[in-house]
Task: inverse folding
């Protein structure tokens, strides 16, 4: 096995027992990037020199007996995370040459945990998109079939992990931007509870929905990453520290959303979901139908709240102090600025934004009620497997509907873990496990049991 | 300035900059006056991508404190909102402010309206200095007799952040972000003022209160207090009381009480002329041009600006408990109004003296400290008040004990020959046997007569106490 194919856990063991060095591990990742980034377009910036320096110091720390959770581990960052001295583009021409003067809290935490930063990954500009095609730096390709989309908006991060260019990568999830590309790439993606991970220093899309998570090869690695990134941050007033109790899977009840059966899920995908359901039952969990009656309004509600906040958050990019002029915004950003400006305008605010916020409260209540009956909920991540590049690019509405199962978790602020459940015509798909706020430990428990039983993560794309 | 035909309808918005150590949403130093441009900045107050606001607890408490001091209700639930608009001094493209749920609502401030509104030399408008060295004037309380009290209703007190400062240099506009994010409290009244004098009186009171609370220097020259009156005229008709005219002229960003007074008076005249011509003044925003001595139109408002307010998602709503509010209330201390009453009742001061001594808290504190020292030396509060008001006492350079010494020295009698005094006392006692026997039989008054007889023999002022003691010794 090549070093870059290791999981964090395996690499940590190898580094500790001096089977290999962080420099060797980092070089293996950089080598893989060099070989395949041209085709896959996963990275906007590769920080080779910095990575090798960091790997060298990691090796020194390892030989001096230091033990840090990510010591010497090569990690990629979505290019929405501010990195001091390293340009951070948000996938947009507007910030093509913007170099932050500070590190995002999560970046600082990852660095402090000893990680090696290999580069900044591609994304839909400003994280607006579900396919990765909205990037001003060209679309990222799906490593399982380069004619297909990798899912977005954290497209480069998902692909970098799936194609072993790094061991883990960070992402942001505002309406599914981690879970969707995770499921399209056969990797594990976590959208944590809103408030679990600091947003400070990460370019905001829609502030009340943005969740900061990551991609890993396994559920166990996802847990390691969260142990580093999570926790209260004095720089983010919306962060909280909370714990949730865990119990054995055999005593758990897992909910299946009754309404989703009628929502046009792809046939192959449906079969794979049924298999997953059976697998969980085999593992001892009980599954039952639950109802989320307001779930049908989730997409409409999301596409009012999200552009409203986007329109305000993008106002600072006026080209006066940093970045280039506003005409460099792409179509999708312009569309959302216009939509959001409209829905917040006097006379429309009550009918749109305010109403959407009320619906949001109802969706939260749906989940609160459901989680009184079940410990977790499983749903598809997307209604379809990955689609072809260009297939939905001219139909924004069709594109928006791919978020139909993911936006609810963002509206409710609950965590969602996307885990691989197999392949449809050679393309990976996943399911998401949703739980109450701050129940990440429970999601990892379910995800881990399922992953150990199925081992989908062992399948690698042929590059 | 009441007008026969029209009654002015004036409301006021005042921005007060708080003197917290750090800014409203970041840990940068809040003081910007005299600082080198762009030295107190960080990702948050520069509005860099990804930066987030974290509210300053102290600033919120101080805002609530101002609200409580103005008799406002403090709702238990409050939140911040985004006010979206573009201007180069606003780095985020929105200002964090409060829209529909401010920290304080529905308060009031009581004004004292003087007898003769045209006599501006009087009372609050005049400085203590003018009176100094004229003790006879300080006794004329009658001049300050309060004619009527007027309540100005306070609509709301809310918290927001200041913008950066634009500096125009030739063709260039430069931005100094040191001021960006400095905590601002906005205090909004109902349109209850009917003259510029009422507005100025209100402003002086408000300035005094925030200085008493120690939450702002309220220094006009440093821009700590910015004033925005809105002015219109209604026809003087009882039927129309409480009804608002169908237009409103706002004058923005005035930084002096004198200018606000001039601007209001100018506007009243200007609008009166327009109304007399049978027209309605335009709804517009003006600025005050001091050089021209007139208001200048900045923009005509056809509709209200659309700021697209919505709840600030980066800051969770603020929930107070009754206990927290009580705790903030307990930190307020004595306000000028209460202090003035206590000084009058407790120390027997005239309204005039009490007003001067309570005008600024350091003076009031100095006065009270001096009273404590004065007690040991038989110097009473009235004497201290007289000295503080009528002599040029710099309380920053004088200690209470030193002031007492000054008072004692000033009231000290001239030096006289001790032997001469004893001789005269002997003589007086011998010449007035009846008074002596009266005193010995218990008539205390007799000693006053004897003292008078002694002091009559001297041209100089002599210490009466000393005379009294010596007489008593002679009588033993
Ligand atoms: Zn700052």
Result:
């Amino acid at each position: 096995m090549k070093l870059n194919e290791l999981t964090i856990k395996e690499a940590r063991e190898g580094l500790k027992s001096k089977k290999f060095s962080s420099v060797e591990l980092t070089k293996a990742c950089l080598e893989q990037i060099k070989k395949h980034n041209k085709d896959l377009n996963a990275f906007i910036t590769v920080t080779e020199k910095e990575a090798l320096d960091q790997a060298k110091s990691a090796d020194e720390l390892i030989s001096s007996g230091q033990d840090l959770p990510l010591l010497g581990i090569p990690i990629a960052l979505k290019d929405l995370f501010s990195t001091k001295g390293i340009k951070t583009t948000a996938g947009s021409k507007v910030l093509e040459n913007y170099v932050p003067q500070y590190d995002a809290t999560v970046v600082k935490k990852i660095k402090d945990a000893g990680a090696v930063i290999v580069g900044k990954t591609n994304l839909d500009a400003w994280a607006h998109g579900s396919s990765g095609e909205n990037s001003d730096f060209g679309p990222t390709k799906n490593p399982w079939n380069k004619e297909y989309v990798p899912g977005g908006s954290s497209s480069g991060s998902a692909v970098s992990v799936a194609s072993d260019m790094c061991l883990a990568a960070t992402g942001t999830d505002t309406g599914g931007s981690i879970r969707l590309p995770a499921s399209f790439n056969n990797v594990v993606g976590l959208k944590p509870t809103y408030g679990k991970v600091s947003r400070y220093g990460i370019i905001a899309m829609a502030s009340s929905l943005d969740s900061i998570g990551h991609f890993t090869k396994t559920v166990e690695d996802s847990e390691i990453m969260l142990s580093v990134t999570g926790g209260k941050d004095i720089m983010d007033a919306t962060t909280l520290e909370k714990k949730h109790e865990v119990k054995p899977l055999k005593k758990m009840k897992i909910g299946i959303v009754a309404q989703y059966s009628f929502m046009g899920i792809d046939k192959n995908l449906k079969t794979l979901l049924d298999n997953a359901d059976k697998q969980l039952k085999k593992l001892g969990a009980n599954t039952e139908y639950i109802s989320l009656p307001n779930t049908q309004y989730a997409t409409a509600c999301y596409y009012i709240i999200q552009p409203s906040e986007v329109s305000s958050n993008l106002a600072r990019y006026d080209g006066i102090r940093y970045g280039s002029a506003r005409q460099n915004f792409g179509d999708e950003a312009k569309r959302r600025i216009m939509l959001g400006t409209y829905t917040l305008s006097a006379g429309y605010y009550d009918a749109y934004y305010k109403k959407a916020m009320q619906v949001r409260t109802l969706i939260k209540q749906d989940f609160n009620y459901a989680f009184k009956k079940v410990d977790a909920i499983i749903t598809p991540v997307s209604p379809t497997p990955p689609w072809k590049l260009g297939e939905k690019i001219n139909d924004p509405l069709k594109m928006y509907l791919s978020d139909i199962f993911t936006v609810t978790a963002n509206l409710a602020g609950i965590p969602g873990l996307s885990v691989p459940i197999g392949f449809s015509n050679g393309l990976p798909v996943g399911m998401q496990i949703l739980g109450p706020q701050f129940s990440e430990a429970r999601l990892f428990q379910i995800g881990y049991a399922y992953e150990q039983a199925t081992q989908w993560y062992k399948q690698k794309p042929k590059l | 300035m009441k007008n026969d035909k029209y009654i002015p309808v004036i409301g006021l918005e005042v921005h007060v900059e708080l003197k917290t150590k750090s800014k409203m949403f970041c840990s940068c130093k809040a003081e910007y006056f005299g600082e080198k441009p762009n030295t107190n900045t960080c990702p948050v107050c520069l509005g860099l991508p990804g930066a987030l606001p974290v509210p300053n607890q102290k600033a919120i408490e101080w805002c609530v404190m101002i609200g409580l001091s103005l008799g406002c209700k403090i709702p238990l639930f409050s939140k911040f909102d985004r006010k979206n608009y573009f201007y180069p001094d606003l780095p985020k493209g929105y200002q964090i402010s409060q829209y529909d749920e401010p920290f304080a609502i529905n308060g009031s401030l009581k004004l004292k309206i003087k007898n003769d509104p045209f006599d501006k030399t009087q009372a609050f408008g005049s400085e203590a200095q003018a009176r100094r060295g004229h003790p006879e004037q300080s006794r004329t309380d009658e001049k300050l007799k309060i004619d009527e009290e007027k309540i100005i209703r306070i609509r709301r007190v809310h918290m927001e952040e200041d913008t950066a400062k634009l500096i125009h240099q030739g063709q260039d506009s430069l931005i100094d972000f040191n001021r960006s994010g400095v905590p601002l409290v906005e205090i909004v009244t109902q349109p209850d003022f009917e003259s510029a004098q009422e507005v100025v009186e209100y402003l002086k009171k408000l300035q005094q209160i925030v200085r008493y609370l120690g939450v702002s220097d309220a220094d006009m020259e440093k821009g700590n207090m910015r004033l925005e009156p809105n002015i219109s005229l209604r026809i003087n008709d009882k039927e129309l009381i409480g009804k608002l005219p169908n237009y409103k002229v706002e004058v923005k960003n005035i930084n002096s009480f004198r200018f606000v007074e001039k601007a209001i008076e100018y506007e009243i005249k200007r609008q009166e002329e327009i109304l007399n011509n049978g027209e309605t003044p335009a709804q517009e925003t003006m600025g005050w041009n001091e050089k021209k001595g007139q208001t200048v139109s900045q923009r005509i408002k056809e509709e209200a600006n659309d700021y697209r307010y919505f709840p600030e998602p980066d800051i969770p709503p603020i929930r107070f408990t009754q206990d927290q509010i009580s705790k903030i209330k307990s930190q307020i201390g004595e306000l000028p109004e209460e202090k003035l009453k206590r000084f009058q009742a407790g120390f027997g001061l005239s309204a005039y003296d009490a007003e001067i001594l309570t005008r600024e808290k350091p003076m009031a504190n100095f006065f009270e400290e001096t009273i404590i020292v004065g007690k040991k030396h038989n110097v009473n509060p009235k004497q201290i008040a007289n000295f503080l008001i009528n002599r040029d006492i710099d309380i920053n350079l004088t200690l209470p004990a030193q002031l007492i010494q000054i008072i004692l020295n000033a009231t000290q009698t001239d030096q006289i020959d001790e032997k001469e005094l004893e001789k005269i006392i002997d003589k007086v006692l011998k010449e007035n046997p009846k008074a002596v026997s009266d005193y010995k039989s218990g008539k205390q008054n007799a000693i006053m007569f004897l003292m008078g007889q002694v002091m009559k023999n001297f041209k100089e002022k002599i210490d009466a106490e000393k005379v009294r003691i010596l007489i008593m010794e002679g009588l033993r």
In short: Residues B 23, 26, 28, 41-42, 44-45, 181 surround zinc ion (CB under 6 Å).
